[in-house]
Specification:
Elements: E1 8-12, E2 15-22, E3 27-31, H1 42-46, E4 53-57, H2 73-87, E5 92-97, H3 99-110, E6 114-120, H4 135-149, H5 153-159, H6 172-179, H7 184-198, H8 201-208, E7 212-217, H9 225-233, E8 238-242, H10 249-252, H11 254-266
Parallel strand pairs: 3-4, 3-5, 5-6, 6-7, 7-8
Antiparallel strand pairs: 1-2, 2-4
Helix pairs in contact: 2-3, 3-8, 4-6, 4-7
Length: about 270
């Protein structure tokens, strides 16, 4: 399935990276998660761009950036650091959702341009994750099926009956899944589990010492909200819970998440 850029293509160390910029003011960088794209922040951006310079990037192996190597969080962070260097922005608030939280923390560890962090919908590690049984096998198979059928006319017809409102295009999440590198499944489900067991995200937050806000959905089906709240609170992060929202609260409650980001940026 082909994708059309909605922003600009920037050469970062020989890699064509797709990014979108909106608004002017203090910079906020938004990093999507596994199988996402810049489009996952379309509605959130509307609540931020009136007073902020909002930067969105398609990570390697995703969206209009593409690629099949350098997909781990540290390699992704090096790419994003190159984007920030090219844009010349300083004191950036970096918000990462799910796997994007790993990238945000890795970026803060290598780029002096990062001034503060927001982690959205991500537990420190997989110790109490509730992924469906067999995810490491079934998810790549599901991805292959999505890539096979996502462009079919009957899929778009059927999408009319899906729950609307999260995306302008009701097929957006399927389109993003279809173009995500198959290699990302192993990065997220296998390699990431080992990395987080060795160095969980709450330990990384503590080591960095940067101002950090964590935004959780009360109904996150992957991670227990109360356990995640306790872990991040223990290392000094500010934690906010969006009631009624799940793993991606910025999709379900974009106005509330935008308000939290604006207030945190102002503080």
């Amino acid at each position: 399935m082909s994708r059309s850029p909605i922003g600009e293509i920037l050469d970062v160390n020989g890699v064509a990276v797709h990014l979108r910029q909106d608004g002017a003011g203090p910079p906020i960088l938004l990093l999507h998660g596994y199988c996402g794209s810049v489009h996952w922040f379309d509605r959130l951006t509307l609540g931020l761009s009136a007073a902020h310079h909002v930067i969105r990037v398609d990570l390697l192996g995703h969206g209009c950036t593409g690629g099949s190597s350098g997909l781990d969080a540290v390699s992704q962070a090096r790419m994003v650091a190159g984007v920030l260097d090219a844009l010349g922005v300083e004191d950036v608030l970096v918000a990462g959702h799910s796997f994007g939280a790993d990238v945000a923390l890795a970026l803060a560890g290598i780029s002096p341009r990062v001034g503060s962090l927001v982690l959205i919908g991500q537990a420190p590690d997989y110790s109490y994750a509730s992924f469906p049984p067999g995810s490491s096998v079934l998810l790549p198979m599901a991805g292959a099926l999505v890539r096979l059928v996502a462009h079919r006319p009957w899929v778009r017809f059927a999408s009319r009956f899906r729950r609307a409102g999260w995306f302008g295009d009701p097929l957006q999440d399927l389109a993003d899944h279809a173009v995500t590198s198959p290699a990302m499944a192993r990065v997220v489900l296998v390699e990431r589990a080992r990395l987080l067991a060795f160095r969980p995200l709450d330990a990384q937050v503590a080591a960095l010492g940067l101002p950090c806000l964590v935004i959780l959905g009360r109904r996150d089906r992957f991670y227990d909200c109360d356990k995640t709240f306790a872990r991040y609170s223990a290392v000094g992060a500010r934690v906010e819970v969006v009631e009624g929202a799940g793993h991606s609260p910025f999709l379900e409650r974009p106005g509330e998440v935008a308000r939290l980001l604006r207030e945190f940026r102002a503080s």
